[in-house]
Design a protein that fits this description.
Elements (H helix, E strand, L loop, with lengths): L22 H4 L1 E6 L2 E8 L3 H7 L5 E6 L8 H8 L12 E6 L4 H9 L7 E6 H6 L6 H10 L21 H12 L4 E4 L6 H14 L3 E6 L3 H4 L3 H15 L17 H15 L5 E6 L12 H4 L3 H15 L4 E7 L3 H4 L2 E2 L2 E2 L8 E3 L5 H14 L2 E3 L1 H11 L3 H14 L6 E3 L1 H14 L1 H14 L1 H11 L3 H10 L2 H8 L3 E4 L2 E4 L2 H10 L9 H31 L1 H12 L3 H4 L11 H4 L5 H8 L5 H4 L3 H18 L6 H22 L1
Parallel strand pairs: 3-4, 4-5, 6-9, 6-12, 7-8, 8-9, 13-14
Antiparallel strand pairs: 1-2, 2-3, 10-11, 15-16
Helix pairs in contact: 7-8, 10-11, 10-13, 15-16, 16-17, 17-18, 19-20, 20-21, 20-22, 24-25, 24-30, 24-31, 30-31
């Protein structure tokens, strides 16, 4: 604002204070090599650009005076950013002006597989000279590069700060523990951002001139090694990732007796070479070297785990300030086991167990609002809370729900994301992206089957059975609460991730036990009606494909018999399968299937008698359900028969 209190607007054009005659002399330059240099300036978006693209800060405008665009040109943008205050420059996008006439195509090809790339708006020198007649030229170019890109559809761990949200406090906490010579453990469900946090920790350490080494325990190149060879692997990682020249010797030198001594010797020398820095050793996917769950036998059942961590723990305790370690994974068993076989677990009660937390509403708002506004999506304030609740703050799930919103929102932007659009996107996500929920739940299914069964109980409403397990031992709920799948309020448990509840509820819909008579009748009626509709569709399709419309119509009329065949004689073929018009019954369908079994045997199964028996059970029990109570045994038989038919229909009609 000016001194009178009137708000200054950002107007198009060159700031009056810029002396054009001096521009060449004062223009900033970036030198990438003795043979290449680039000039750049800072530009401020005018009001319409601020509103359309959420650009509140200045952007870098880079000039590339070369006829052929080279990827290293983008390095100039990266080098320019640290020259200015962090809050002054827009980090997510910049503008590139190039003499290469194919700059737009080349830039698109270069960045299309880089999910963390900055948005770069390309122009050619020639375009800027001839664009004066089109008042929307610049706006349309920005729209083309902003709104077309889905910033939410991120699959790989984030290696840069550009799109890294919500984990800054956690990163700082882990760094502070390391600098205080403490070890840490971080665990969580799949896709909660654990590896992105690791990269954030490494970036944070680099900014304060720290040192770290990342060890991927998931690769067979590591977990197939014996414990003594694995120590050599760790030293190799420290040397390579910190660009040191330490001679480590051959892996054959690391015998069981010599490996601990060599590990100490070389780690101390590398720390000294780094200026006596404390090195953070980061073990990712640590369950791959954990007893009982490792894919490799000598870690799963042998002594390798104990000997490896005895070596590291002993050295850590003997030389304060030499190194610390961070354990990261999906399964915290490595720090939960008190003993391994008959030996004390060297990690038990030594590593604090921390689960990676879900986003809270402010963190969700920061991520979704920032990325959404760049893509032309304006989220109502209420959506941030709803999204956090539905996804339990799980960033991967939230980003992909938002990705669906982007996909179904059309090209006219900006667009308002209200409750209606959000609900539609969530339904699509639950219908089409079940693999995401299954991937997240796979941790529980693989490692903690009892807890997974408890989740299934809760999802289908078997509260009594769930509570009985929960009261037996807190071990049955510790992981569910730690992973953030469940929450406990006043000794009552409920789902914290609503989409997981709805996903499991759909899967477990017809598996509830201890049902009332009304619940049994409702399930039988609902499933029988759905099966009938899908069987009619199947019969209509198969007969038409096999016989043709005329012969198929005659065959169905013959099965209907008098007086229905006479009444339906003038109906088109498709109407014969409409119960409201033709009067076709569930009991007619097995007759169609038997008469034309060759059309159905590869769909429903090759045993005709079994199929007829299942259909008879489904139909007759529905009739009995209105007249009498239904026993648990009858309900179980119905579920088996209905399940077989439903599975066959789903496989063919889906």
């Amino acid at each position: 604002m000016d001194p009178t209190g009137i708000e200054d607007k950002v107007r198009p054009g060159i700031n009056p204070q810029v002396v054009l005659s001096h521009f060449d002399a004062t223009e900033r330059e970036i030198f990438l090599s003795p043979t290449s240099n680039y000039r750049y300036a800072l530009i401020k978006p005018i009001d319409i650009f601020q509103e359309m693209f959420n650009l509140d800060r200045e952007m870098g405008l880079l000039f590339s005076p070369y006829e052929n665009f080279e990827p290293r040109t983008l390095d100039a943008i990266t080098k320019a950013t640290p020259l200015h205050q962090a809050l002054r420059l827009e980090r997510i996008c910049s503008v590139l002006v190039s003499k290469d006439p194919d700059i737009a195509f080349k830039l698109k090809e270069l960045l299309k597989n880089d999910q963390e790339a900055q948005i770069v708006i390309p122009f050619t020198y020639e375009e800027l000279r001839t664009s004066g007649s089109d008042p929307y030229f610049f706006r349309n170019r920005f729209i083309e590069h902003f709104y077309a890109r889905d910033l939410f559809a991120s699959e790989s761990p984030l290696k840069k700060d550009l799109y890294f949200f919500g984990r800054t406090d956690l990163v700082h906490s882990l760094i502070n523990r390391h600098r205080s010579n403490q070890v840490s453990g971080l665990f969580g469900l799949r896709k909660t951002g654990k590896t992105s946090v690791i990269f954030g920790v490494q970036r944070g350490l680099a900014k304060v001139d720290g040192a770290s080494a990342f060890i991927d325990c998931q690769t067979p190149a590591f977990h197939r090694l014996r414990w003594n060879q694995a120590l050599h692997h760790v030293l190799m990682a420290v040397r390579k990732q910190n660009e040191l020249n330490e001679r480590l010797g051959q892996v054959e030198d690391y015998t069981e007796s010599q490996a601990p001594l060599l590990f100490e010797k070389h780690l101390r020398r590398m720390s000294e070479a780094l200026g006596s820095k404390t090195i953070m050793l980061i073990f990712d996917e640590v369950e791959n070297i954990t007893p009982t769950v490792s894919p490799t036998e000598h870690w799963r059942e042998g002594e390798d785990f104990v000997l490896f961590w005895q070596t590291i723990r002993s050295l850590f305790q003997s030389f304060s300030g030499l190194f610390s370690y961070l354990l990261v994974g999906t399964n915290p068993l490595c720090v939960e086991l008190s003993t391994v076989g008959t030996t004390d677990n060297p990690l038990f009660a030594q590593v604090p167990l921390e689960y990676i937390p879900g986003f809270d509403v402010p963190q969700t708002r920061e991520m979704v609002r920032r990325l959404g506004r760049i893509m032309g999506l304006r989220f109502d304030e209420t959506i941030y809370g709803k999204l956090t609740e539905d996804c339990g703050g799980h960033p991967y799930l939230m980003r992909h729900v938002c990705s669906v919103i982007h996909r179904i929102s059309g090209t006219e932007r900006p667009i308002r994301v209200d409750k209606t659009l959000y609900s539609r996107a969530l339904d699509i996500f639950l219908r089409d992206y079940t693999q995401f929920m299954e991937m997240i739940l796979s941790v529980l299914r693989e490692y903690f089957n009892d807890e997974f069964e408890m989740l299934r109980m809760l999802s289908r409403g078997d509260i009594k059975a769930f509570q009985e397990f929960a009261e037996l031992s807190p071990l049955y709920t510790n992981h569910l609460l730690g992973y953030g799948v469940l929450q406990e309020v006043d000794k009552r448990f409920d789902f914290r991730i609503e989409v997981i509840r709805r996903h499991l509820q759909a899967r477990e819909k017809y598996k509830k036990l201890h049902m009332s008579v009304e619940e049994k009748r409702s399930e039988i009626s609902e499933r029988r009606n759905d099966i009938e509709q899908r069987l009619r569709k199947l019969c209509r399709m198969q007969l038409l494909a096999s016989l043709g419309a005329g012969d198929a119509r005659d065959s169905v009329l013959a099965i209907l018999g008098s007086p229905r065949s006479a009444r339906c004689a003038g109906y088109p073929y498709s109407d014969l399968f409409d119960g409201n018009r033709s009067g076709i019954l569930f009991s007619d369908i097995p007759k169609v299937i038997r008469k034309h079994w060759r059309c159905f045997k590869n769909i429903l199964g090759r045993d005709l008698e079994r199929v007829e028996r299942d259909l008879k059970t489904i139909n007759e029990l529905r009739g009995d359900a209105h007249a009498k109570d239904i026993t648990d045994e009858e309900m179980a038989v119905f579920r088996v028969s209905a399940g077989k038919i439903e599975e066959a229909l789903s496989a063919f009609l889906s």
